[in-house]
Amino acid sequence: MKITPLYEEHKKLKAKIDNFAGWSMPIQYSSIISEHNWTRNACSLFDTCHMGEFIVYGDSKESNLDKVLTANLEDMNVGSSRYCFMLNEDGGIIDDLVVYRLAQDKWMLVVNAGTIEKDERHLKENIYTNLENISADIAKLDLQGPSSRDVLRKFIGEGIDKLRYYHFDHFFILGKKILISRTGYTGELGYELYIDSKGAQWLWNLILNDKRVRPAGLGARDTLRLEMGYPLYGQDINEETSPIEAGLERFVEFKKEFIGRKALLKQREGGIKKRLVCLITNSRRAPRKNYKIYAEEDEIGFVTSGTFSPSLSCGIGMGYIRPDYCKIGSKITIKEGKVKIDATITNRPLYKKGSLRN
Amino acid sequence: MGKMNVPDGLLYTKEHEWIRIDNHLGTIGITDYAQDALGDVTFVELPKVGDSIRQFEAFSSVESVKAVSDVYAPMSGKIIKVNDGLMESPELINQSPYDKGWIVVIEIFDENEKKNLMTASEYRKYLEGIIE
Predict the structure, then answer these.
(1) Same domain for A15 and A74?
(2) Is it the case that residue B3 has pLDDT exceeding 80?
(3) Which of A14, A33, A283 minimises the CB distance to B65?
(4) Are A185 and A142 found together in one domain?
(5) Residues A173, A214 within the same domain
(6) Do B42 and A286 touch (CB under 8 A)?
């Protein structure tokens, strides 16, 4: 089992630790619900060191990165980032990631923890220039919540006020260089902090000294992202699902060539057989992975993710259903064994009061 | 891991349920260890008054943010009371697993079934074996 540089800190805080993608990660420190609520009302710090980072050298065309990623890279300014996909030839999602333009000819790809090796193989096959896997050298902490900007201002000054959504810059905290990006996975105003692995413990403890900040684990990370309708790779999206089936076409730039483009165009023309939708139930009962979805007596799909939503006090989830049943507002039933939950198809975000754009 | 609360005077199952016997009535719930392992309880599926339950068969389920867990009957009996408060406040199971977080009260069919259960000190030893 792999551990992050913050493993001892989690043990000191008596976190419940469990396996996630081959890593021993903190699931909760106190309670998932209280960590979730603290994130939405104040500010939480998450250990996301397990995620992967790659550096690609060269401009988007000479490196061939432009063919590997679905985002338009040409018009990205230095200091900006984009959410996009790496696809296989069938249009299936190899990974979802955020690409950062560090310089005219230097890119950082931030990928999921469970797919680092697979992504590296795919990149090695398709990138023509220098490629570095810096995952082990880079630590990442997510600071998320409406108070996050105030907390960072205390450490780095008013420079943080100018940082726009999906943009990043280098800052110094007590002489240590940190890349801070205004991105996240919670739907709240928030930042991802990248620092050399050796500085992770120091930064974690420095930020937690501020009483407005509390640690939060992967349990709350999951309830927060589900309330926003954000997919989780390996659960809601995988190599057997395309961005079109996942309803995430807007992160694909069809005007350029990229691996998987032909397959996606075929799907656009011929239609898809399944479509990812968000579900909200009318009870405290949660839909769970693999529960079946029905419209009246017809089985129309299955649940891929589900949980109890602390902010909405009801069950929520995501699942794939037949496209002809995809109308927002349609009533469905979720069944498994004796469990029967009434639900409605809804659009994202399910939680609409996030401070993301503050 | 903090010390788990295991009150004397109750009988316990391997699946971490407890029963408090008072004459021929039994109050049933899940233990401190169980509620801690589950995390925040978000929903409790309650059986109906009048239902019969059988020793070691599932009669209820408790949901937390991350999982669904069956609750097994420590003894057989007929349900005469159900804790409706758990519909509004399932977190009572986390806050007060042996008191306000009780799940059902049954009329016990056969007192002899007690011999299949653990005493508090036996359950404490059992927990020592499973907690690291």
Answers:
(1) no
(2) no
(3) A33
(4) yes
(5) yes
(6) yes
Give this prediction's pTM: 0.95
Alpha-carbon gap: A286 to the closest alpha carbon of chain B (Å): 8
How far apart are alpha carbons A100 and A81 in whole angstroms?
4
Class of domain B12-126: mainly beta
For chain B, the straight-line distance linking the first and the last C-alpha, in angstroms and rounded, comes to: 8
The alpha-carbon gap from B59 to the nearest alpha carbon of chain A, in Å, equals: 12
Render pLDDT for B75-118 as a digit per residue (tens, 0 to 9): 999 999 999 999 999 999 999 999 999 999 999 999 999 999 99
CATH code for the domain of A151: 3.30.1360.120
Find the domain containing A95 and state its range: 52-133
C-alpha distances (whole Å) from A75 to each of A27, A60, A65, A66, A67 are 39, 10, 14, 11, 15
Same domain, A123 and A144: no
Question: Residue B21 to residues A241, B27, B111, B115: CA-CA distances in angstroms?
Answer: 54, 7, 9, 13
Q: What is the pLDDT of residues A79-121, one digit of tens each?
A: 999 999 999 999 999 999 999 999 999 999 999 999 999 999 9
- CB atoms inside a 10 Å sphere around CB A176: 14
CATH code assigned at A117: 3.30.70.1400
Domains identified in chain A, total number: 2
B2: pLDDT strictly greater than 70? no
- Residues of A whose CB is below 8 A from B68: 286, 288
Q: Is the pLDDT of residue B1 over 50?
A: no
The predicted complex's ipTM stands at 0.88
A72 and A217 inside one domain:
no
